[in-house]
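Bumping with the actual sequence this time:
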Amino acid sequence: MSNKLVKAGDARVEEERKSKLTKAADAHIDPAIPAERQLGPVSVANLPEISNADMAAFDPSEIQGTPAERIQQFDALLEKEGARAVRFKVRYDMVLGLILAEVNKTEIYTAQHKTFEEYADTRGVSRPRAYALMEAAPVLRILLSSIEDIPTLRPAVTQALRLVDAFKEDQETGVRLVLDRAAEMIREAAEGEAKEKARKAVEKAKAAAHAAAEKEAEERGEEFPPALEPVTEADVAAELDKRGPFGGGPITAAVIEAASVELGYTKAPEKVEPGKALADAASLLGAAYKAVAPRTVEALAKEDPEKARKLLDDTEAELRKIERRINEGRKALNKTAPAFPAPRAEDSPEGDATEAEVVEEQAGAPAKA
């Protein structure tokens, strides 16, 4: 963690402290930390030492009151977690995900907001991010309690989402199995890389020694065996021993996913066939064409004109992106397999545009208001 981040966190906390001199006497108390560990107002500089169990302990259902009061308490807790997120970003993501899940499940957001997405937006969280956090939160709790067991792990929402399948099937046991296998895969990969580097180093050293001996024999007028001494496993082991221990590196989301697939928790991603993918795209666009029929739009407009207008705008925006992507695809096709020469200017009737020009113009045209 850079000193700049720590100083920035301290400055922010101090500024908030000065602006809230009238706060309640117990405003600093965090329900996730035992009373004996409470060391005054939270700041990056004087954060208490928190065990892994304390870090992972948080239950939003224990916070009682009316819907409005619960929302207010949740907001206050998140502000407090945000103040120390410089040090404990993972815990903040866990608490935020658990709170979002509780608010969504109990629908207490209706006290102040029309939709759950609107409440999430007040916390600065987009809809996709909110659902990702809710799904990842239970796994983040396990990761927090597992840090001392797997020191190379860097917990984050991305990693946690790769562990959701294992969590759903075998809870904490599944998560730990995947993490253990991921750690093994990292070590195996590092060991393989270290062996390959050692082998190349030995080969290079033996080749240099062979060339020097050959040159020396030539200068003496002696014959020298042309065969280069082969590299043995003993040579590689000796080189590895000379280089010392090698590090395994952090457990990445990609390795976690590979371990989950290997253990059978996650299905291996299917290989996309280009022909099928393009055929599916054409089929989906055909369905979209039918969906935006005037009669369908008119029926929705009678119920909710604002929603109809927004959905049409969203559809048009996606269509613009598809048009640009199709144009890029045509360029790639012409570059890869230029079947026909481009028509000369005199071959086209004056004033007629080619299909490519029409696509170009459509792709660059601004969306209609």
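The tokens above came from a reply further down the thread. The CA atoms of residues 146 and 274 lie 42 Å apart.
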